[in-house]
Amino acid sequence: MEKEAREKLNRALSPRTVAVVGAKKDSNYSWLVNNKDFRGKLYSVQIDPNEIPGILELGVENFPSLMDIPEEVDYVICAVPRNVSPYIVADCIKKGVGGVTLFTSGFAETGTEDGRQFQERITLMAREGKLNLVGPNCMGIYNPRVGLKFSAEQPHSEDAFGGVAFVSQSGSQGSGFSTEAYNQGIGVSKVVSFGNGILLDATDYLEFFADDPETEIIAMYIEGIKDGRRFFQNLKAAVAKKPVVIWKGGVTEESSRAANSHTASLAISSTIWDALLRQCGAMNVHGLDETIDAVKALLFSRPIKSYPRLGLTAVAGGHSVEISDCFSLQGCKVPRLSSESYEQLSSFYSVVGGSFQNPIEGGGNWAKEENVTTILNILENDPNVDALVMELGTAGVQRTHEGLMQRIQTLKDFYSSSKKPFWAAQAGGTQRVPTELAREVSHELQKGGIPVFPNFVRAAAAMKKLVEYNRARE
Description:
single chain, Rossmann fold
């Protein structure tokens, strides 16, 4: 990507000034409301006299034209009808904006001749005018660091910002990733929903984020690509710099039809796609949960390059069976501990309510923080254990918030002095951790480098993905 084009795109992705064109009452002025927490200057462009009073009530300054805004505009959100969009594109070119998102749909994805003609018209305009056009038929850009959002649900707090960029052909998948990433304690640098991608598509954003200093990991939801050779060349170059996780939509005959009508994307053989991703060294995932968990494993875990022998801990007997099954079925081993470890455990472990085989059951032995530290250190020093996984139960210590924070600190202190990978999973079995509590636990432990997963099944599947990814790269 040329330096000038990159600088302009960076203005759009991290703007200081934003203009919303076409905000209307019948949509509750959603684009203005969504960006009420934007930390730069927010403007409106609207000529309908019936709409302007509502815009002014929001405290947003309105202008009849983009050209009338008395300062440089970095990013434009265009929410006007299709037949008006070429005029807005023309103004964006004249104004020299960093980029424009066309939320407007009704282009090639409709399969109609007039839709294709409109798309060709604005493509030609944007290309000749060197305009970064995001879309059309998309939600645009989310950047929590500057409070730029395309969905009211997207968080904008300080801990929502982090090292993961998500490039999505779908607005709903982009919104879903950004909110679930926050719930799971993953910080996002930027999210781009690019829809039809007539000028900038997945390949361009991949190239940009490969060199973005704020991005450590690139994750993508893709329904189709225009230039396969260029995409895979850029993917190979990106993977050499940072991990790339790709979720391909439209891998079956039925879903490929949906992808074509959604973003005018053409199908590609799943066999060919999988082989190319392996060759490039990218991680191949399916679904939002798998994407989130893969990113989490890459972001927080110490390296795991082969199927590990695990030292497991669980809160109760049934959960110990469940956690063993989940990890064993994914190729991991749950070995007997060394005789020295069993001797150390038997010196203090109460057999009432808990067993100290592997997995080690909690019972009353987990009530004291010193016992937790002792048990984890025994597993850390056991020669038969390569990595540790601990269940975070909902009972006992979690009855008080103070007790929970104390337990989290115990685990962080242990991990800071350990050498082995250490993962945690929320309660198994029928127990479920409330969302707010689960979010807080994930955020706090992951600040200390311990990845936390919602359940055993997802943790085990993520560990398998991480092992396969590291083995393929080697």
